């Protein structure tokens, strides 16, 4: 698994405990790994050279960090990393950094095979590597993506497969046009057709207790995953993950109103991990807890 391999490599290279890491992928493509890269105890010396592979790493600072030495193929420089900027490293190079710094960032590990597979799936030409204008390019999009995925990395919230797929698609879309050799087409994505809308909704309703993915939904509609994700948002005004969550909440409300099942049982029946998972989403969308909502419907 990419997440385990990346976490181990970071731990070994930076002499820190294995950082929490999650992976996102679209069926048919390799994974993208997201790590919470944090250490508040500076050490002496340099990190071990990162293992060479055809992949790229984006370091997205969550707090300012000053690295006295950043060495790329022997060329050294001092780098101050600031939130709101993205620091791109090519892993075919020999990359080392000074450990005499405290840091808190999201590290995105993006294999070349993932870039190519996702481009192919979208009908785009092969992306010939990634390049930044400088080491520390302004990139508020990657910064916001990093903040969005952080709770999932820390396991403070449970997320759906559709959520991680949407993150992977959004990342790929931004990266290939910002750092790759692909030019964005002037054409825009329309919404789903009426039959695709019905097919997607029917599939979601039939699989709420499972974990319907963007890849599965796109196959049902006969279009690519990336096109489906964009068209779904045009049609519904929200991401597939957000729609699935709302439909699960509606199902939970129906079960609470019509059955005597416990909240724990209802949570699982609706596709939530557990009762607390249901409770967090219910409170966020309904501004009331499931138990309070049920009591109002069935006062004793």
TrEMBL record:
Record key words, sorted: DNA-binding, Transcription, Transcription regulation
Highest taxon, organism lineage: Bacteria
Residue span, HTH araC/xylS-type domain: 198-296
Keyword Transcription regulation listed: yes
A family per Pfam: HTH_18
GO molecular function: DNA-binding transcription factor activity; sequence-specific DNA binding
PANTHER family: HTH-TYPE TRANSCRIPTIONAL ACTIVATOR RHAS-RELATED, TRANSCRIPTIONAL REGULATORY PROTEIN
UniProt name for this protein: AraC-type DNA-binding protein
């Amino acid at each position: 698994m990419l997440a385990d391999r990346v976490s181990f490599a970071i731990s070994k290279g930076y002499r820190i405990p294995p950082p929490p890491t999650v992976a996102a992928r679209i069926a048919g493509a390799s994974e993208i790994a997201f790590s919470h890269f944090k250490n508040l105890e500076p050490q002496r010396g340099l990190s071990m050279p990162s293992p060479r592979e055809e992949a790229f790493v984006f370091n997205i600072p969550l707090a300012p960090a000053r690295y006295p030495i950043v060495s790329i193929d022997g060329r050294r420089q001092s780098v101050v990393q600031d939130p709101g900027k993205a620091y791109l490293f090519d892993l075919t190079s020999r990359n080392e950094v000074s450990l005499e710094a405290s840091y808190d960032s999201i590290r995105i590990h993006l294999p070349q095979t993932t870039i190519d597979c996702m481009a192919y799936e979208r009908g785009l030409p092969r992306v010939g590597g990634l390049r930044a204008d400088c080491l520390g390019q302004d990139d508020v999009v990657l910064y916001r993506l990093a903040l969005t995925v952080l709770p999932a990395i820390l396991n403070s919230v449970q997320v759906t497969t559709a959520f991680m797929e949407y993150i992977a698609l959004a990342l790929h879309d931004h990266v290939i046009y910002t750092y790759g050799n692909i030019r964005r087409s002037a054409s825009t994505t329309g919404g789903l057709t009426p039959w695709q809308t019905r097919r997607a909704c029917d599939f979601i309703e039939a699989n709420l207790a499972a974990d319907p993915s963007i890849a599965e939904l796109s196959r049902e509609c006969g279009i690519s995953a990336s096109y489906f994700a964009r068209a779904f948002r045009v049609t519904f005004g929200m991401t597939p993950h957000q729609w699935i969550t709302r439909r699960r909440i509606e199902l939970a409300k129906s079960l609470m109103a019509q059955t005597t099942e416990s909240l724990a049982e209802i949570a699982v029946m609706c596709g939530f991990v557990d009762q607390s998972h249901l409770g967090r989403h219910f409170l966020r969308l309904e501004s009331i807890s499931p138990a309070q909502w049920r009591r109002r419907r069935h006062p004793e």
